[in-house]
# Entry
Amino acid sequence: MAPRKLVLASATLAAIVFSTGCTSPGSTGPQSDSPRSAATGATGSTGSTASKAPESAGAAFPAGTPGPDGAPFTVAEVATLDAPWAMAFLPDGRALVTLKGGTLLLVDPASGATQEVAGVPGVADAGQGGLGDVIVGPTFATDRRIYLSWAEEADGGTRAVVARATLPADGQPRLEGLTPLWRQDPSSGNAHYSHRMAIAPDGRHLFISSGERQKMEPAQDLGTDLGKILRLDLSGQPPADNPFASRGGAAARVWSLGHRNPLGLAFDGDGRLWSSEMGPQGGDEVNLVERGGNYGWPRASNGSHYDGRDIPDHAAGDGFVAPKASWNPSISPSSLMIYSGAAFPAWRGDAFVGALSGQALIRLDLDGTTATAADRWDLGERIREVEQGPDGAIWLLEDGSSGRLLRLAPTG
Ligand SMILES: [Ca+2]
Ligand SMILES: [Ca+2]
# Structure
């Protein structure tokens, strides 16, 4: 586990409470989306540094150590968190970080100091479910609005929920006015929620990835949310110009179908929507998400079923939209970020995928509508989230009960 030693940044140690939880990455299957260990070893970091001024603008970030061989970046460890799942930066430079167990943190990315945000709803923390994605609304500067997803108990199992809330600028960090916008229908077990969110560049449309809950065939059924990417307005209603709006019901929410477990969702600089999707045995995908497109699951996949049964590969003329990139064997793509920062100018417009079983950060060259796998940096840990910081640094969250928050900055 040499990479863990490489990235310890001593300047940050005082602000970090380390977990003693198991970090063995080999304890889950190669394509599992489950954390690498159960909910053991709570870090107890929340609130422990709440008295520290949450300022980061202009603050010095911790110095990093060299990244993997050939990487043009250093890696600095900023915090260690208990099963972090997603992060999003606020305009003031702080970051919101979700912990799968149901905690939302405000993190000072310079010191690693954390504050717990109150008012987070109860979550169904089991299997792949728990607190999920967090994004900052397009009008946050004026209305302080954020969007949150999580898994909740429901008749017949659990389901994903997406809600909006406000994060007041003053007082103790808290959510107010929590308003559910969408509940995944139907309910099911505790896997393949997806529940990743992205707001279109027009600032008016919320896209939600809704996994197929391991049910497979519903991904082809317009009558359910399962296996779809959905498009709603910011009040949760299906816009009249959605591709299947005239059919009403669940179909009216659908933007694209035939998805398995799309855990990454991001817009590029030209307004195209991309997703990263967990395939079955092999066949992980990066897709360009087109209006009304059918992405084939479970009828077409460049992978196969876990029991070895074949699934026809994507092929011209099969009626399905083929992935722009796919992986065999699996990498287990957890997250997707399209880079637009200044720190790595050569990578502007490129896509970055965090890999769970692949334990890597992967870069794809995006050129218009094509995507070409370009770099794969072995990080020695399951990568749960990839995000771009305000200064163009690349931020990662590791998976599991002692998942580190890492900052990747240009070398030299
Ligand atoms: Ca994010
Ligand atoms: Ca196949």
User: Anything to note?
Assistant: The pocket of calcium ion (ligand 2) is lined by residues 301-304, 310-313 (CB under 6 Å). The two ends are 25 Å apart (CA to CA). The CA atoms of residues 204 and 233 lie 6 Å apart.
